[in-house]
Fold this sequence. Notes:
Blueprint: H1 3-15, H2 17-35, H3 43-60, H4 63-66, H5 77-101, H6 133-199, H7 201-221, E1 227-228, H8 229-247, E2 251-256, E3 265-266, H9 271-283, E4 290-299, E5 302-310, H10 320-332, E6 338-345, E7 348-355
Helix pairs in contact: 1-3, 2-3, 3-5, 3-6, 5-6, 6-7, 6-8, 6-10, 7-8, 8-9, 9-10
Amino acid sequence: MRQEIIAKSIIRRVSLPANLLMVGLVGGMFCLFGLATPEPGIGFLSALLPFILLFGHLALSPVPWQWTGDDADRAELGRGFIQAFCFDLVWIALVLGCLHLLGWGSLTPHTLPPWPEPAFPPPPPFHRQPFRPGLGLGLVNLAFGIAYGWVSSAKEATEASERRTAELLRHSQARALQNQLEPHVLYNALNGIAELVHEDPLAAEEAIARLADLYRMLTVHGDAALVSLEQERRLVEAYLAMEQMRLGDRLQVTWQWPEWADALRLPPLFLLPLVENAVKHGIAPVEAGGQVVISCERMGDWAQLVVENTGKLLQGGHRGVGVGNLETRLGLWTEISGSFILTARGTWTVAMVKWRPEEG
């Protein structure tokens, strides 16, 4: 992993409530065990020590195993062990050293009361190094830090791999649905042109030229993951211009479009299916035609696309291929929460897509 990814990984670990709860529970057990010992003078630092070391292991021990300097999720075993040994040795020594300077008494051997003078000469003294609890505690934490870092980094590497796989699958599904929608628009347009061939051959010829432009725009438009709403609006205008040739005065379109709306970004082909559904199911079947009103609104952090058309909602709330496709893609759009509503409002049918635009 690279430095910026490791920083995010540390923040994620120390912010998970489950991890903090585990530090509190285990640290509390060590603290109670220490307070239950018969030796007096445990002190505040001794009570705090288990929490400091456990939190340090949680935040820092996986870091040397994750540091690779490239896009790999985890260092190889040999390199990771050497990095973990050096890194954990440094931060554990710093923690214990700082506590020692602050007066943590158990880092030095305890002073025992003198024994009474024996009645007979003692044997020759046996020289033995004094037991140092601080050194033992440091070695135990060093071993624990290496082991915990190895296990935790392996777990995070597996989770990262699973997230990437899920993300690739989600993008593949969204792309497949998007590819399905593009020929669907073409088929509907061709059906409309077929009606013009016998009624108005010149209009049909012009409609074919407009269809070529529309499909060229669709090809470029559909290659992007996110597009501006201005691009989507121009695509819809090209589609409506072609439909206007077929329906004439039967199709009346009103845009209620603020200037700021063009800068918003969203996945491609989100507005077009709403308009196409309105024309195909609300306007074209009616001999007298009808109206389509296209608007964009802003409500706090949320933006909303609204397409309204005259005509009641079809029985069973029929959505059509394009709108059903949109609903599925909206469910796959996990980066930004969004919702879709198709409802009746008096003698009008209203379709709404609501989402939280990306910042910047």
